């Protein structure tokens, strides 16, 4: 990010902060206005290659709206090229990752802890870095932006291609922000990714942990849940004894590492159990919750059902508690050895459910991944 400071319009100072997607101008009154990149053109001896440059009273600042359109087109072309690269399971540069993550944070910052989602929509469960299986998902479910997607978290860890998987989904989010919704899973965490693969993968593929830092910073901005047409509550894990209403979720400060306990942790870690009330989770985080808990939560918030991910389902999806709660799993042959199928949930305009089942991508369509150190067997 480059800063340009100087004098303009008399003695009023102006700071222009530049990065590949937009400019933000700050005036002495602390009012902030956002304008498209290249809408302001600096004419004069102001080298853009310098980290800091001075815009003097003799430097002319002019508005070039035609350049705005040209720049926006150029930025979208660059993003489209990055998407093309990532779809081939190839890496984009570290600088491109930095710019992508910066823009993604801006977009995600505007989203609610309970993000509103319109129907029709296709809901997807865990992906876990299984990039070629994500391509299978798009093959059966349709591409973005033709299909409106909601992903329920756990984009990374376990699989061989967490970097390419997360960056592709993030690039699609930036390119089509209203056609793909990403919420946070328990693996979108600095601590968890240092154990289950994403940290090591970033280090191996980029030679430093910088890309891991960029991505984990984005994790903090991901929504905690989504609400489809006000009727279907979607979350990665489950419910919390600390949460009775959606407004309590909206009040959480989500821009942080996932805590070890508390309501934010519970939303990402909890699981349903064929019991009543609350129980201790064998995962060591979150809770087990029964049918009565779901019934009370749904009634209190006037919702019809809960849709979540987080647990391996051999058949791809599973209904619980008289179809008031649903688990969707979208990583086929999980960890390349479980033998399960995967599913996506397609909801039409009337919120009628249709499941598409798919299997792992054929072996001959995959690249062979390098050997990695052994990971813990505990399925998070």
UniProtKB/TrEMBL annotation:
Ranges where the Serine/threonine specific protein phosphatases domain occurs: 183-188
InterPro entries registered for this protein in UniProt: Calcineurin-like_PHP, Metallo-depent_PP-like, PPA2-like, Ser/Thr-sp_prot-phosphatase
Entry annotated with the keyword Hydrolase: yes
Keywords, comma-separated and alphabetical: Hydrolase, Manganese, Metal-binding, Protein phosphatase
EC number(s) recorded for this UniProt protein: 3.1.3.16
SMART domains, per the entry: PP2Ac (SM00156)
Catalytic activity: O-phospho-L-seryl-[protein] + H2O = L-seryl-[protein] + phosphate; O-phospho-L-threonyl-[protein] + H2O = L-threonyl-[protein] + phosphate
GO molecular function, one term: metal ion binding
Pfam annotation, one family: Metallophos
Family: Belongs to the PPP phosphatase family. PP-4 (PP-X) subfamily.
Protein name as annotated: Serine/threonine-protein phosphatase
Organism in which the protein naturally occurs: Timema douglasi (Walking stick)
